[in-house]
Specification:
The chain is elongated, with a radius of gyration of 19 Å. It starts with a helix and ends with a helix. The longest helix has 35 residues. α2 packs antiparallel against α3. By secondary structure, it is mostly helical. The chain has one domain. Helix content is 78%, strand content 0%.
Length: 115
Amino acid sequence: MKKKLTTISFCLLFSVIISLILVNGVRAVTFADPLGKEGNLITIANTLIKGALGVTGVLALIAFIWGGIEWLISAGDTKRIQKGKDMMTWAVLGLLVIFGSYAILNLVFTILSPA
């Protein structure tokens, strides 16, 4: 249990560090208005929902990778192989749901946003 918690903590810390490096890069950070000059409720909701979908997409990708690692280190144990396969399958289904909801919400927000 302690080993599993340590591994999960390490993966979470690693993903946070990598995402901070990718977001910030080596350029200077500027604080621009993320909503533009006309930030209304639809724009705020759009930004928040797309951000939440991005976070869930990252979590699904981490689950897929975790399932692959579980499968690789199973050492022939059929239960662990099946657990890894199941985790990868559910992660792919989760990603499909996330991409589908992103497409639908993008369409809805395009229709609702002022011209």
